[in-house]
Amino acid sequence: MIQISNLTFGYKSSKKNVLENVSLQLNPGSIVGLLGKNGTGKTTMLNLVTGQLFAKEGVVTIDGEDVKTKSKSILEKMYFLPEELVVPSISLESFIKLYSPFYKDYSQEVMDECMREFDLQIEKKSLNKLSMGTKKKVMICFAIATNVPYLLMDEPTNGLDIPSKRIFRKLINSHMSEDRTIVVSTHQVHDVEKMVDHIVILGEKDLLVNDSVDGLAEKFSFGTSPKGEVIYSEKSLEGNLCVARRTESEEETPVSLELLFEAVSENPSAFRDNKK
Predict the structure, then answer these.
(1) Rounded distance, CA 33 to CA 42, Å?
(2) How far apart are CA 128 and CA 214, in angstroms?
(3) Which residues of 23-38 are buried (b: 16+ CB within 10 A; e: fewer)?
(4) Residue 5 confidence (pLDDT)
(5) From CA 43, how far away is CA 52, in angstroms rounded?
(6) Is 49 left (phi over 0), alpha (psi -120 to 50) or beta?
(7) Which of 86, 28, 42, 59 is nearest to 202 (CA)?
(8) Alpha-carbon distance 7 to 177, whole Å?
């Protein structure tokens, strides 16, 4: 379990905090969508969770152990795929020989499967000579193949074309398990809509949404004919698309992440009281 308790962080170059008093628990068996506008602290949070940054206040623990220790038991449990990839000038075969021993459950079988799904045939090419999209796909394959309990990915769909985004979602879903936690940070909400089952949305400094998709469906309705209090509305060819507080008499509607994201951005105060 990832436990974030009363976390506050700000960069020395700025007088403002990026995150303030944020608390969050992420349980095994969830694919978490970490959403928010650019600059709201998504990457900062991932860096704090992985121990690459240290908080001003508060603590982050993984399975009860403070990530600041950077102990072997923590490091072998998680893999972080950053948005900006820096890869060595070596072949994939050499990369795997060098880095796979750090992950005790690494599977070459899974790596080969993922490479086939993306139709990657890079032979003996040096990783740093690959295009950005190909690098991203190769490193997604390796990240999944580590089989770590905690897989964190920052904007993994950036640089991928539409078919590759579909394959990415397929691979994440097929290699999810009840003892694994996968966190996907993105501002491209549509890319993860059919994949995630838990939603975390960051506002300016604070946490606006922290709920399962099922929990959001219980609290809010999405569509053109709301019965409850309308929180957000936008025009479409179908009429006014709305996010509203769901009434007891309404049937649940599928959660539209794009509509939810716009609603949270437009009316954040309506969501602060609905966090778990």
Answers:
(1) 10
(2) 42
(3) ebebeeebbbbbbbee
(4) 95
(5) 11
(6) alpha
(7) 42
(8) 28
Distance between CA atoms of residues 219 and 247, nearest Å: 8
Query: Letter for the amino acid at 38?
Result: N
Query: What is the side-by-side strand order in the sheet with 57-62?
Result: 19-26, 2-9, 57-62, 65-66
At 88-117, the pLDDT tens digits run 999 999 999 999 999 999 999 999 999 999
Q: CB burial class (10 A; 0-12, 13-18, 19+) of residue 258?
A: middle
pLDDT digits (tens, 9 = 90+) for 56-78: 999 999 999 999 988 999 999 99
Using one digit for the tens of pLDDT, what is the confidence trace for 157-168? Answer: 998 999 999 999
Nearest to 172 by CA among 215, 110, 127, 112: 110
Q: What is the DSSP string of the chain?
A: -EEEEEEEE--TT-SS-SEEEEEEEE-TTEEEEEE--TTSSHHHHHHHHTTSS--SEEEEEETTEEGGG--HHHHTTEEEE-SS----SSBHHHHHHHHGGGSTT--HHHHHHHHHHTT---TT-BGGGS-HHHHHHHHHHHHHHT--SEEEEESTTTT--HHHHHHHHHHHHHT--TT-EEEEEES-GGGGTTT-SEEEEE-SBSEEEEEEHHHHHHHEEEES---S-EEEEEEETTEEEEEEEPPTTSPP----HHHHHHHHHH-GGGTGGG--
Over residues 134-145, mean pLDDT: 97
* Dihedral angle sign, alpha carbons of residues 68, 71, 72, 73: negative
